Amino acid sequence: MTDLDQIASELYALPLDEFTAARNSRAKDVDDKSLAKEVRALRKPTASAWLLNVMNLHSGDQLRQALSLGAAMREAQEQLDRSELKKLGTQRQQLISALVKDGTALAEDLGHPVSAAAALEVEQTLRAAMADAGAAAAVSTGRLVRPLEATGWEAVDLTGAVAGTFDAGNTGRIADSDSADEPESQHDPAAEARAELEDAEDRSEEAEAQLKRAQERVDRLDRDREALVSQVRELRKRIRALEQDIDGIDDDADDAVRERTEAERAAREATREVERARKVLGKLER
Known about the structure:
It is elongated and about 135 Å long. Helices cover 76% and strands 0% of the residues. The protein has a domain at 3-187. It is mainly alpha-helical.
């Protein structure tokens, strides 16, 4: 690992909001002008790339497990082992889902939660890393700059994906190099077509599963919304009833005020009559 790679590894593990200042500060501290320039040129990673970088530090065993499973799937793909691919495909989905869930929880624990869009990019990058050895190597560096995306089992575009030194040309799939040594006569177009069909079917199954999960979430949110709407209706009814109670109290209060006024008037009149009676009695007693 070069000095640049070491510095990049440290920087890309920092919280995103600290990256730029830390990078510029580190560049100033480097005596080698050429290296300082390279450090200053390091690009800030996307949220999904940052999360995968810190997952390398905090969830390295799980990540390596996923990448190993990807290597097994690529081997099964080269051998056209349909049953093995299907079994590994199920494991892949479970492992990716667990990794994304744990990764988003890790981001929360670190005080830098990621968006749903970033979590989706993490999932796409993991799929790419499991489909292509070069992408797996890129993710393993811990210096990922941007998310990766795969199309079937084709090589993933790694241009500008990794900070520091990274030779994407030497990270191609082993199966690819093996197949280059095979005689042309060993290639079976029909077998390759079947493999492509099976891969398309796998992607279709995954898409259907994703659609099902998305529909379930939509249905759940619809139910939650309807429950809230129902609560709002009940609250509005209660408010109207309380407003009617207030109106009734206001009417009773008006009546009570009028009764008090009449009682005050009667009390004053009674007081005057008492005074008059006392005066009459006083004259008679004299």
